[in-house]
Design brief:
There is one protein chain. With 433 residues, the protein is an alpha/beta fold. The chain has two domains: 2-289, 3-Layer(aba) Sandwich (Rossmann fold); 306-426, no CATH class. The protein is 51% helix and 12% strand. It has helices at residues 11-22, 55-59, 83-101, 121-135, 154-164, 183-195, 214-224, 237-247, 257-265, 272-278, 294-328, 331-340, 347-368, 373-394, 409-426, and strands at 2-6, 26-31, 43-46, 67-70, 105-109, 139-145, 148-149, 168-171, 177-178, 181-182, 202-206, 212-213, 232-235. The chain has a seven-stranded parallel beta sheet, with helices on both faces. A two-stranded parallel ribbon has the order 7-10. Helix 5 (154-164) packs across helix 7 (214-224), helix 5 crosses helix 11 and helix 11 (294-328) packs antiparallel against helix 13. The longest helix has 35 residues, at 294-328. The protein is elongated and about 85 Å long. The relative contact order is 0.09.
Amino acid sequence: MKVLLTGATGFIGRHLAIALAQAGHEVVAAVRTPGRALPGVRAQIAGDFTRDQQPADWQGRLTGIDVVVNTVGILREHGAQRFDTLHEAAPIALFRACVAAGVRRVVQLSALGADTHARSRYHLSKKAADDTLLALPLQASVVQPSLVYGPGGASARLFNLLASLPVLMLPGKGSQQVQPIHIDDLVQALVKLIERPEARSRRIALVGPEPLALREFLARLRAALGLPPTAAWPVPMPLVRLVAKAGRWWPGALLDDESLAMLERGNTAPATDTTALLGRPPRPVSQFITREQLPAASVMAQLGWLLPLLRVSIALVWIVTGVLSLGVYPVEGSYALLAQLGVGGALAPLLLYGAAVLDLALGVLTLTLKRHRPLLWLAQIGLILGYTVLITWRLPEFWLHPFGPILKNLPMLAAIALLMVLERRLERPPWNT
């Protein structure tokens, strides 16, 4: 079949495109900017959910299409990516264009919880598109997965991080119900739905084999990562809600008030449809990570919290150094050191306080800067090397000091280099799916 796939650059879309191609189908991807090669995709057309919100925008692109599969979705609004456009207006326009163009089959990737009890804007926007699709005169499957786990996915990165912490941080008692499904099971079920349409249009829940309390899910995932059991720390719910409310205004935050509300509501359903489509029970959490994936998955999970901890530590070094130089450390002592470096007179206070302000600025930027952070790391490396060369030239005895004030520059440089190399691979926007 010729399948038009939206969201082919997202986590689920990428996996689905490869699986459809392997099953012998021709995948046409609707992407904002055609051109970049996508695995499994034979052809690309222009399609932008932030702009194409009328049926006429899509109708001419549906010629020869047998099935339309929509996997576009966001967990957090970001820039031009809004729930009401990406989840509702553009998909509804696409679905109505399918009717006009004679496309008889649509598969919509929705979410578990997009039902009559929905309260979050995420779920409500999904439900609006689902309801419209199910009322149209075509054969439709509205797929409602639970949490989707798989290498490279936002959920996997988040829950691997939480499971790998030295102590499991649980919201309240950690009794929130989840039923995660592995990406491979989800994709296999989607391919079956595309190839063998249901007898009637309906919603289909795709979930893992059993509901789990969040604390149990994290404990099982920790074991799957090859990490030893650890204690759990229940975080009081008022504090969790306060952090979630603040997360609404912090781009890239792991939690906001809407995602917390969805977690508290629960994310479970009978596994009947999933088992029927797969011809077997979906895989349990203990099988989410294969033996081949285990070493890399375990290391990446721990780097997910170790690198931010390292960044905060480096920031504190700069900030505390700046504060001490501004007067906590005796100014006379600072001037004496500068005199040993050959700096005196009116230049001494200018250099002392200028360097202190620079240290403070580097510390604050280390905590807050998102873009151009590699340039910040290079600036810090250059400054530390400059300090080291100057002190080696004028005060070489500091290399022999028992407290090692210059030797400590070496692990500082290594830590900054480590961050510069690794953190860009880990810091991907968690709101895209």
